[in-house]
Design a protein that fits this description.
heterodimer, A: 117 residues, six-stranded mixed sheet, four-stranded antiparallel sheet, 10 strands, globular, B: 111 residues, mainly beta, seven-stranded mixed sheet, 11 strands
């Protein structure tokens, strides 16, 4: 059974940093492009970043470029999102998923990031 | 960025009756590889999104055949042939043809 478990979300002050983790199981992690997506009442569903299966290519939505870094550890079957210079607009539930352009399967329960003073 | 506009934010439906959700793009979603990367997602209350349809009209495994997708270019539709109570959810279209991937604002189907 394919599973994604995102963690690391918490309350953080504006300008702060946070690292999200996603542990996976039930599939060959190193075969897949992976994505981070987020959802908030104000911004709806938003794709945040993608990373190629071997980590060699990365893509970001413009609003996070230069502040967020997606990376992965294929040996640990884990995906990460390093988030710096956080603003209130980054508040939301963050999901990890196999790239939903190409893949079905669960997104996991998500992890809540709240940026507030 | 590509903007996807779903015509209704809310869609009241009756169990047993058909329902239709529209998604319009401000750019063609026909990719240079000949595919059109328009997907549909369902998000039930309290759950994460689940993909239903990929490349306009292909149902994902386990998706009931009462769900169907159609369209081309810039206009797409998700149809539910006979709505069931279990279909209460928010439905999103998503395009994967252009970077960044973008989603519609969602249509809430209410019985």
């Amino acid at each position: 059974e394919v599973q994604m478990v995102a963690s690391g979300g918490t309350l953080v002050q504006p300008g702060g940093s946070l690292r999200l983790s996603c542990t996976t199981s039930g599939f060959i992690f190193s075969d897949y492009w992976m994505s981070w997506l987020r959802q908030s009442p104000g911004r709806g569903l938003e794709w945040v970043a993608n990373i190629k299966n071997d980590g060699s290519d990365k893509y970001y939505v413009a609003s996070v470029k230069g502040r967020f870094t997606i990376f992965r550890d294929n040996a640990e079957k884990s995906l990460y999102l390093q988030m710096n210079s956080l603003t209130a607009d980054d508040t939301g539930v963050y999901f990890c998923a196999r790239d939903p352009k190409y893949n079905s399967g669960p997104w996991g329960q998500g992890t809540l990031v709240t940026v507030s003073s | 960025d590509v903007v996807l506009t779903q015509s209704s934010l809310s869609l009241p439906v009756t169990v047993g009756q058909p329902a239709s959700i529209s998604c319009r793009s401000n750019q063609s979603l026909l990719s240079s590889d000949g595919n059109t990367y328009l997907n549909w997602f369902q998000q039930r209350p309290g759950q994460s999104p689940r993909r239903l349809i990929y490349k306009v009209s292909n149902r994902d495994s386990g998706v009931p055949d009462r769900f169907s997708g159609s369209g081309s270019g810039t206009d797409f539709t998700l149809k539910i042939s006979r709505v069931e109570a279990d279909d209460v959810a928010i439905y999103y279209c998503m395009q994967g043809t252009h970077w960044p991937r973008t989603f519609g604002q969602g249509t809430k189907v209410e019985v």
